[in-house]
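A student in our group prepared the protein record below, which I am reviewing. What it holds is a sequence and that sequence's fold in token form. My question to you is simply how this chain folds and whether the tokens agree. Do not assume that whoever made the record got everything right. I have pasted the whole thing underneath without changing anything:
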Amino acid sequence: MSIAEWNKPVSENISRLIKAKGLKQKFVTDKAGFGRQQLNDMLNGRKIIKPCDARKIAEALGVTMDELYGAAEENESGDI
């Protein structure tokens, strides 16, 4: 499994949340304390999204880890 495949569900959710909140990747990068290219590398499958990175992203977006990983949506639809 490639990094892009591993990250895909979470990276798609992060991108969706950024768009839904009307934010820019740079805002999330700065607020999460990442380097300039780090978030972009995670979203594009060049760097694994580790749990510690996911927590920083969730905090920057003002969402829970469940929302970031899509578990909240699955719970609402009854898939879990």
User: Anything to note?
Assistant: The mean pLDDT is 90. Residues 3-20 form the longest helix (18 residues).
